[in-house]
Amino acid sequence: MGHGAEQVIGRFILLGRGSLLAAAFSRIAQALVTAFAATVIVWALLPLAPGDTATRVLLARGVDHPTAAEIASTREELGLNNPLHIQFVDWFSDVLQGDLGQSFTSRAPVTQEILERLPATLLLLGLALVFSAGLSLLFALISADNRDRWPDRLIQLYTQVGAALPTFVFALLALTFVVVGFQMGQVLANATWQAALIPAFIIGLDRAASWTQLLRAGLLEAMASGYANVARARGASERRILIRHALPNAFLPFLTAIGISVGALIGGAPLIEAIFTWPGLGAFLLEALSARNYPVIQAYVLIAALSYVTASLLIDLIAILIDPRLRRQAS
């Protein structure tokens, strides 16, 4: 190879690295802006809520008829007499240090209460994510490999029913027939992986319905593409084309859907945790909602929003690494 050809190849490598870094920095910058906007919206939950904040705090603490002196003292305690922008700066600086405020009801640090319950929720949602991805991948491959035959029609029926029914319907059916009827699982669950299997499977089964539809459509589109026809002309079997050619090309939108659904998984956790009496953040949020415990509500919404932003960023970076076209668009 000549010296000129080596220079050209080296230039392409540098350009590829440059576009990759530029695209990555662009996505990271977008994620940071989105995360900051989310913190502003979450902080606004408290001052924009109806009624006087100090009065709501006292009512949450069990003071049914707060006096003017108690309200004034609470306003001073919470810094509510400061201008709104000062209140936000103080709150935001505390959040950056891991301080999510104090619970209105228990007066304990919200960060401490969340950390006590976070492992249980991570266990439940982590298993649910594994079940969701595994089931949707399996069902989509079976459906695409048996297009218009009975396995495909059966899976299509499941995806339509799963997309139409909310998650808590599956949860109630599982609790009634599986946990109570067949004595599988626990009515009063503890935070062990054995107890998490059934609620995680229910969440995964519900989420996998829409993911299966998406991946199946991508697989069928890839199976009808030109490179699939070239592979057929070379003697490749349909199953080999499905696995070796169609799946890698359909996987990126599927991966994006998983990243987008992380926030939905966290947002849907409270109902599932309440149905299965799971001792995680979801049940903690429902208690906070009934007591109007706004610091806990703020913390939960903030965690859900930042989890969504982080997951989307990771998926975007993986996509940029895999697909050069996305690098050029982002950079």
Structure at a glance:
This protein has 331 residues and is an all-alpha fold.
Outline the structure in words.
The chain is an all-alpha fold. 79% of the residues lie in helices and 0% in strands. It contains 13 helices and no strands. Helix 5 packs antiparallel against helix 10. The longest helix has 41 residues, at 3-43. It is globular, with a radius of gyration of 25 Å. Residues 1-16 have low confidence and may be disordered.
List keywords for this structure.
single chain, 331 residues, mainly alpha, globular
Low-confidence stretches: 1-16
Q: For the CA atoms, what is the radius of gyration?
A: 25 Å
Helix-residue proportion? over 70%
**Secondary structural class:** mainly alpha
Q: What percentage of amino acids are in beta strands?
A: under 5%
Helices and strands in order:
Elements: H1 3-43, H2 53-60, H3 68-78, H4 84-96, H5 110-145, H6 150-164, H7 167-181, H8 193-223, H9 226-233, H10 238-275, H11 281-291, H12 294-322, H13 324-330
Helix pairs in contact: 1-12, 1-13, 2-3, 5-6, 5-8, 5-10, 6-8, 7-8, 7-10, 8-10, 9-10, 10-11, 10-12, 11-12, 12-13
